[in-house]
UniProtKB/TrEMBL annotation:
It comes from Streptomyces hainanensis. Residues 13-116 form the Histidine kinase/HSP90-like ATPase domain. One of its GO terms (molecular function) is protein serine/threonine kinase activity. Pfam families: HATPase_c_2. This is ATP-binding protein.
Length: 134
């Protein structure tokens, strides 16, 4: 009989800046206790950056939602952050003393792999994976 895989964790948050902290907390709490020490900081940073980008660039109305899915697979913990927008996730040029523009650079540094994927009906998802290391 095959092993039954873990069911991915799923959350939907309002397109509001307060959702960034709530999303980061939800993801940290969803990690197994033995992995929190080694993954919580990096996964929290990924969550913050991707949810912030989704709210800023992927939503246009307050009643829209940002969706998060977290799941383990292939030696990684994967995070998908989805929004109804059509942004492509380009790394924008930034000024050295600017207050923004570093989000996807951080994602690129932290994640073993990441991509922006179109959703079937509407919107995009940014999927990023962190390797399991203890």
């Amino acid at each position: 009989m095959p092993d039954i895989p873990l069911v991915p964790a799923l959350w939907r948050f309002p397109a509001h800046p307060a959702s960034v902290r709530e999303a980061r907390h939800a993801v940290a709490q969803a990690l197994p206790q033995d992995l929190r020490r080694c993954l919580a900081d990096d996964l929290g940073l990924l969550t913050s950056e991707l949810v912030t980008n989704a709210i800023r660039h992927g939503t246009s109305q307050r009643d829209e939602r940002v969706e998060l899915v977290l799941w383990p697979a292939d030696g990684h913990y994967w995070l998908a952050v989805s929004d109804p927008g059509t942004a492509t996730g380009h790394r924008a040029a930034r000024e050295a003393d600017g207050e923004s523009g570093r989000g996807l650079l951080l994602v690129d540094r932290l994640a073993a792999a990441w991509a922006v994927l179109p959703r079937d009906l509407r919107g995009t998802s940014v999927v990023a994976g962190l390797p399991l290391r203890e």
